[in-house]
Amino acid sequence: MRRTVFNEDHEAFRATVRDFIAAEVAPVYDAWEEAGHPPRDFYNKLGELGVFGITVPEEYGGAGEAGFKYQLLISEECARAGVSFGGYGVHVNLVLPYLLKYGDREQKKRWLPDFVSGDMMTAIAMTEPGTGSDLAGVQTTAKRDGDHYILNGAKTFITGGVLADRVLVVARTSPADPENRRAGLSILAVDTRSEGYAVGRKLEKIGLRSSDTAELSFSDVLVPAGDLLGEEGRGFEYLTHNLAEERLGIAASSYASAAAAVDFAKKYVQERTVFGKTVSSFQNTKFVLAECATEVEAAQSLVDRCTEALDAGELTPADAAKAKLFCTEVQARVVDKCLQLHGGYGYILEYPIARLYADARVTRIYGGTSEVLKTIIAKDLGV
């Protein structure tokens, strides 16, 4: 089916991104996976490419382009090549919407130019060792003391946490109220050079090995009151506001991964011979690829529709939950079937399908588990 979500400008940028990946990422990607993250200067190259500032207003060094479509395009091109841009997704898809919506003018002038150039990489720290998806259960505290907050606590599963220069930390600025556990949370933009701020273990993951994920701890970290994002006590409200875009971002990357898996499998079965025949000539191969291609088409249509809705300000939390739930499940099924078509070679890491398989598992967990999403969808249905 003809897609209508992209225009000529998008496709021209796609070609630029594709060339950049071929020159700067694909040849060295194995080394990134071994190291657990790209080299720090890679993010400056992304800054020069312009991918960090697409939606940032021109006055802060960006391009001032509204909408999600460029992020969708980048997800597709990374999946197509079997690579990732390390902490790019968290930096642009998670952190930037908070800075744009809740940062005041002074904060934007301080942070956004370096954000766009890649001189300041960011992460967001919500999850704690004992809370998981229960954001209202946050135990990290930030107590106001004059012109500063004193931050204490710990976070885990923080993507981009090793190389981040500034981290949005969700902390409790007033005691928990049993009647309203969501009240009293705030977001502080913490400078990682602050005394008492520490990066703990770099967590070893099954997949997404070129993206650093870390434990963080805060011991009497002094955070200037001017680094409070938005208003004190409204952190939970802010976090839920951006969940729809975050979940669409995961849906987009999941759909793109499934589409790439079909392309990798199609190429492999057309070249591989068994019993004197190409694997693609067997009826089972044809049927499996047909099933996968159909599921990918459905996922793409849902992502495209949700992208248009997001850009129009109409994407609901329930619709975003449906997109993430469906696309991550499609990803799991399609990547698994496409790996099976590779036979034993599908389990060998030099083949991109193996990397896609390992990377796929977490998409049904982060950004809201599938079980949490089903609860949101059911509530929207009135049941």
From TrEMBL:
The residues covered by the Acyl-CoA oxidase/dehydrogenase middle domain are 123-221
Name of protein:
Acyl-CoA dehydrogenase family protein
Family designation: Belongs to the acyl-CoA dehydrogenase family.
Taking every annotated instance into account, which residue ranges of this chain make up the domain Acyl-CoA dehydrogenase/oxidase C-terminal? 233-381
Q: Which cofactor does it need?
A: FAD
The scientific name of the source species is Actinomadura vinacea
Where does the Acyl-CoA dehydrogenase/oxidase N-terminal domain lie?
Answer: 7-119
Instruction: Name the InterPro entries for this protein.
Output: Acyl-CoA_DH_CS, Acyl-CoA_Oxase/DH_mid-dom, Acyl-CoA_Oxase/DH_mid-dom_sf, AcylCo_DH-like_C, AcylCo_DH/oxidase_C, AcylCoA_DH/ox_N, AcylCoA_DH/ox_N_sf, AcylCoA_DH/oxidase_NM_dom_sf
**Top-rank taxon:** Bacteria
- Plastid is among the record's keywords: no
Q: Does the keyword Acetylation apply?
A: no
Alphabetic keyword roster:
FAD, Flavoprotein, Oxidoreductase
Sections of the chain in a coiled coil = none
The record ties this protein, via Pfam families, to: Acyl-CoA_dh_1, Acyl-CoA_dh_M, Acyl-CoA_dh_N
